[in-house]
Each structure stands twice: as C-alpha cells, then as structure tokens.
Amino acid sequence: MFQSRVISLILKRNKASLNSILANFKETTSFRASSSSLSSSSSTVARSSLYGFRSLYKGNYMPSWRNMSTAAAVGMENKEGLKLLVTGGPRAQKAVGIWLFGSAAWVFSMVILGGITRLTRSGLSMTDWKFTGSLPPLSDEEWLQEFEKYKQSPEYKRVNKGMSLEDFKFIYWMEYAHRMWGRGLGIIFALPFSYFLRKGYITLRLGLKLSALFALGAGQGLIGWWMVKSGLEEPPSEYAQPRVSPYRLTAHLTSAFVIYTGLFWTALSVVMPEPPAESVAWVRGAAKVKKLALPVSFIVGITAVSGAFVAGNDAGHAYNTFPKMGDTWIPDDIFNMKPLIRNFFENTSMVQLDHRILATTTLLSIGALWWSTRKLDIHPAIRSLIGSTVGMAALQVTLGISTLLSYVPVSLGTAHQAGALTLLTLMILLNHTTRKPSVSLLKSLPQVAKTTF
C-alpha cells in the first residue's frame, strides 16, 4: 500500500517531465542537430562531478556543490545516458543528498550502539516488544515490574542471578536506547521522504529504491525481536549460557549492513551522478580497478558476516592468543559437530578460525589491489581512496588482534565492529567511484587528462 501511494505520487509530480521526454523522443532530428552543444555541456558535468572527492584529494581546482549541481541539473533533460535521481535543481539535489547521507550515518550509529548493547549483555533485558514502542518505567513500581519479568528469563537465572535493581536499570536503558534509536531512524527517514515527494524532487527510480529501503528498515525491527526472542528460550543444556541464535544475530547485522550500503550508495548517486573522469585513459584505468575491487568487496562482506557468527557464538572468548590458537595452529575439535556443515556456523573453534583466515585474506586482497593498481593511469582521487582502504584494512586487523588478546573489552570490541563498517564504506565508495561514465561523457573526454595535479 505504501509503495503504491509513493509510485502514484511520483508519477503525478513528474508528469511534466514524462511529457517532455516523449516530446524529445519525437523530435530526434532536432536532438541530433544539437549534439555538438551537448558534448560541451557533458564535459562541464564531467568536470563538476569531481566535487565529491575533494575531501580525499586536494588538487589545483575545487568545484563547489553549487557548480556541480547546477551543471547536472542543466544537463538532466538533454544529456544522453545520464539519468539524475533528483529533480528541482542544485538545491534540491543538495538537500536530498544531505538527508540520505544523514540517514546512512544514523544506521552506522545504530550498528555501533547495537555492538555496545551486545557486548554489555544488555540485549535480553527487555522481555517484550511492541512495534510502536512504549514508554520506559517511570516509577519505582514500574521498575520492579520490569525487573520481575527479567527474573523469569534464563539469562537472569543462569548468568545474572542476584543482580541489583540498579544494575538491571543499566542494561535495560542500553536496550531501550537501541530500540528507540531504530524507531527514530524511521521518523527521520519517513518525514523528509514525504516532504521531498510533495515537492516533486524524487524521481520514480529513486522513489522505488527508497521505498524498498524503508521496507527493509521496518523489517529490521521484526528481525531484531526475532533475534532477541531466541535468547529468552531455555538453552538445550543445563550448562550452556543463554544467548541469541548466531544465525538470527547474523541475519540482524547483515540486514543492517544491507540497509547502510543501500543508503550510502544512493546518496552517492544523488550528489555524484557522474564518476570522476578527465580523460579516456583515466576511465580505462578505473575500469581495471573496478574488476579487482568487486571480488575484494565480496571478501570484505563475507569477513564481516563471519564476524557476526563470532559474536553470536561468543567465539572471541575462546582462544585469546595470536597467531596460534592456544598451543596449536588449528584446534583439534573443529569438526566435532554433525552434520559437518554445522561446524562452520556453531563450532566455536571453527568459527574463530574461519574469521582469522578471512581477515587475513581480506588484508592480503586489499594489499594486492593496491599493488596491482599502483602503475595504472587513474584519477588521483581513486588512487588516494585505494591507499586509504589499505590503511583501514591494516587498522582493522590490528583492532581485531588487540580485541582478542584483551579478552574482548567493550571499547575495543565496539571499535572493531565500527572498523568493519568503515572498511565496507571505503569499498562502497571505491566501487561507486570506478563505475562506468555515461555515453555522452565518454564522447566528450580527451584521450589524456589536461589538468595537472
């Protein structure tokens, strides 16, 4: 129902644009006659779209938000191959971009807060869930009622028996803040979305993408409760500590990463409709980088998912030595579970070994990406981005080892999770930067860059 209303509103607001497109289609002869002037316009857009990388590389020129947005808006209706996601000119483009980047940053903070909630064992303190949320306890009597509910949970009986009311308030507030922060994201996303729809800034293509992301965000709350519910059940063994299902925890974290990736990529597409390109040689170099960046991005994603299984199985507390696991390189019990496939997701030893191997593979792959591209003729912003990715990968591995050797303190564990999302952010940016330019931009580019950096 929500998506259908969004689509109808988008079509209504963009009726004039659709009519213009049909008119242009009928006037192909006129379009061909003006192709020479379009080449000049597309060249302006190409140079202007570099504005997004001035924070990465300081060159001899620095185009502004206003210049890039203006050039892109002018070329929106008559540039072949370039489809802007936002109508309404540079101000609308800037406003929508800021909103989307802000939403992505909010999701980033949600992941960090979720990590703190897990590391402080606060996630099972609230034993019920309402889609719309509820007020926290406001009186001593209400706090005692919530505490009594928690006392019936397996975690209290097996882990926190004898906990004081003040200690319970701490873990309750942590989980409550995490849930309310998620609902706050829904508000800061939905309200501007509705406003931009009414103003007619959102195109059909962008509206569909954002509607899908909104649906994923709503589903994320359900996945979160589905995860928590698994931790409120009695463990199968009387010696086992209650904890959420590692599969459900991984689903919850992976879903958050997907939402973040969608928001960040879409925001980049709004503010930077064309990749940085000053010459055909640089475009060819970017294409070579793209072929290498895609598989490396896949490895980064798989490593992040394996980290969720480490968290879900508390595997970080198992072997707090490095590079060996205890006294051996490979523990003897990595294939103890039947069927064999369970070991890769539930066996503490195997799960930690997998994560170590994948983390090392990630570092080596990113290092190989840098080595393979060091002599390519590519845009300086792309080269700078690759260097930043190498540095972040090295820092992330260092954080992981430090977290392990320190028995997973909250501070280092949180930093390690933030590092994983930061590394993913850099890979998203690298893939977006090296995407193929529009046909009109390619036609307007010289063979060699004229700008000296």
Question: What's the mean pLDDT score?
Answer: 82
Shape summary: flat
Strand content: under 5%
Total of DSSP H or I helical runs spanning 4+ residues:
17
Number of E-type strands: 0
Secondary-structure map:
Layout: H1 2-13, H2 15-26, H3 28-33, H4 35-48, H5 65-74, H6 90-119, H7 140-151, H8 154-158, H9 165-199, H10 204-231, H11 246-271, H12 280-312, H13 343-346, H14 348-373, H15 380-405, H16 410-433, H17 439-444
Characterization of the model:
- Helix 10 packs antiparallel against helix 11.
- Helix content is 68%, strand content 0%.
- The protein has helices spanning 2-13, 15-26, 28-33, 35-48, 65-74, 90-119, 140-151, 154-158, 165-199, 204-231, 246-271, 280-312, 343-346, 348-373, 380-405, 410-433, 439-444.
- The protein is flat.
- The chain has 453 residues and is mostly helical.
